[in-house]
Write a structure and sequence with these properties.
The chain has 181 residues and is mainly α. 80% of the residues lie in helices and 0% in strands. Helix 1 packs antiparallel against helix 2, helix 6 runs antiparallel to helix 7 and helix 7 packs across helix 9. It is elongated.
């Protein structure tokens, strides 16, 4: 099998919660991938996700930082895979309660990418800011998220669906999402 096939197999194993199998596939992809190739980058990215899913957040942050530097050089900072690694790094910082670093990572994700993926980064950013009791800033980002969703999906603005509504919902989710993971 080629490295791409092992990368696909490792991603599937991660989705199925089969982390040992994913590690085997990641290692095989690493062994077969050429130095500096995108196949190697994807294997390293899968390793970052595996570490995150295993709740090894410190190791995952280090892995994300390494992969992000390499992906930014090879693919560009706005490439979806680079942005995914940036977002994963933000999630790791949030789980480690390194909220300032999480905010920076989520802001970078939002800045470097648009669309539905960006909306989840807004949600996690607002949740993180809420956990820090930075409510005014959270409201501004909640409003920006709402505006971005309107632009992305074309819904008309409802008078009752304001930034504070989003903030309250996300603040409630924050306890469930960020603290339980």
């Amino acid at each position: 099998m080629d490295p791409d096939a092992f990368n696909c197999a490792s991603a599937a194993a991660l989705m199925d919660g089969e982390y040992a199998s994913a590690k085997e596939c990641i290692d095989k992809a690493r062994d077969r991938a050429a130095e500096g190739s995108t196949d190697l980058l994807y294997a390293e990215g899968n390793e970052a996700m595996r570490l995150f899913l295993l709740e090894e957040y410190d190791a995952a942050v280090r892995q994300c930082e390494s992969v992000q530097r390499q992906m930014t050089t090879a693919l560009g900072k706005n490439h979806i895979d680079t942005v995914n690694i940036q977002y994963c790094k933000g999630l790791c910082h949030a789980r480690l309660e390194q909220y300032d670093d999480a905010v920076d990572a989520f802001n970078a994700t939002i800045h470097n990418f648009t669309g539905a993926h960006c909306h989840q980064a807004y949600v996690d950013l607002v949740a993180t800011l809420s956990l820090q009791r930075r409510y005014e800033e959270a409201c501004r980002h909640a409003e920006a998220s709402y505006t971005a969703c309107l632009a992305e999906y074309g819904y008309e603005r409802s008078e009752t669906f304001e930034a504070v509504d989003i903030l309250v919902r996300v603040h409630c989710m924050a306890a469930e999402v960020l603290k339980l993971y």
